[in-house]
Amino acid sequence: MLFNLPNMLTLSRIVAIPLVVACFWLDRGWAQWLSMGLFVAAAVTDWFDGYFARRYHQISRFGRFLDPIADKLLVAAALVMLVHNGTLAGLNVLAALIILAREILVSGLREFLAELRVGLPVSALAKWKTAVQMVAIAALLVGDAAAHWVTQAGIVLIWIAAALTLITGYDYLRTGLRHMAEDAPPTGGQK
Questions:
Q1: Could you tell me the pTM of the whole model?
Q2: Which of 65, 73, 64, 22 is nearest to 43 (CA)?
C-alpha cells in the first residue's frame, strides 16, 4: 500500500526539508530554534516509520525505496546550509564532505548489490553514526541562538559522525568489493 503510515512519515521528512531551510535563513534567533525543531522532528520520523512498518507489517517497496532517499536529502540539505552560512567552515567542511561522500558511496553500493539480489543490511554502528550525525546537525542548526558552546559541541559531534562514517563506509565497501570481485557477465551499465 502506497499511502500507509510509515510511507506518510517518510514523505513528511521530505516535505520538512524546505521548511527547515526557510527557517534557517530567517534572521531571527527563534527561527534557528524552529529550524532545529523541524529537523529533529523529521529525523525522529526515520525511527518511527521503520518501527511502524515492522510492527504493523506495512513494509512496502515504495517505503524501502524512499526512506533512504529522504534521510539523505534531509542530511544533505542541512549540511549544505551549514557550509554555506559558515557554521561549517575551513577544515570542518571536510567532515560534511566525508558524510556526503559516504552516503553517495553506500547508495551506489546498494543499487549495485540489488542488481545481484544481495542485501546490504544497516549495521548497528551505522545506526549510531546516524544518531550522532543527527544530534550534531541539530546542534549546529540552533547554534549560537542556544549558546556558543552548542556550536562547538556540534562541531565535535560532526567530526565523531565523520569518523563513524569512514568506519561504516569501509565496512560496506568491503562487503560490496567481495561481490564485485566475482566474475560476472558485462552489463549495459558498465563503464
A1: 0.88
A2: 73
Q: Coil, strand, or helix at residue 26?
A: coil
Task: Give CA 88 to chain center in angstroms.
Answer: 17
Query: Among 1.20.1250.20, 3.30.300.30, 1.20.120.1760, 2.60.40.1180, what is the CATH number of 5-181?
Result: 1.20.120.1760
Enter the DSSP assignment of 87. Answer: S
Burial class (CB in 10 A: 0-12, 13-18, 19+), 152: middle
Q: Which amino acid is at 80?
A: V
Q: What is the pLDDT of residues 91-115, one digit of tens each?
A: 999 999 999 999 898 888 888 887 8
Phi then psi dihedrals of residue 49, to 5 deg: -65, -40
Predicted confidence (pLDDT) at residue 181 exceeds the cutoff of 80: no
The full set of domain ranges for the chain reads 5-181
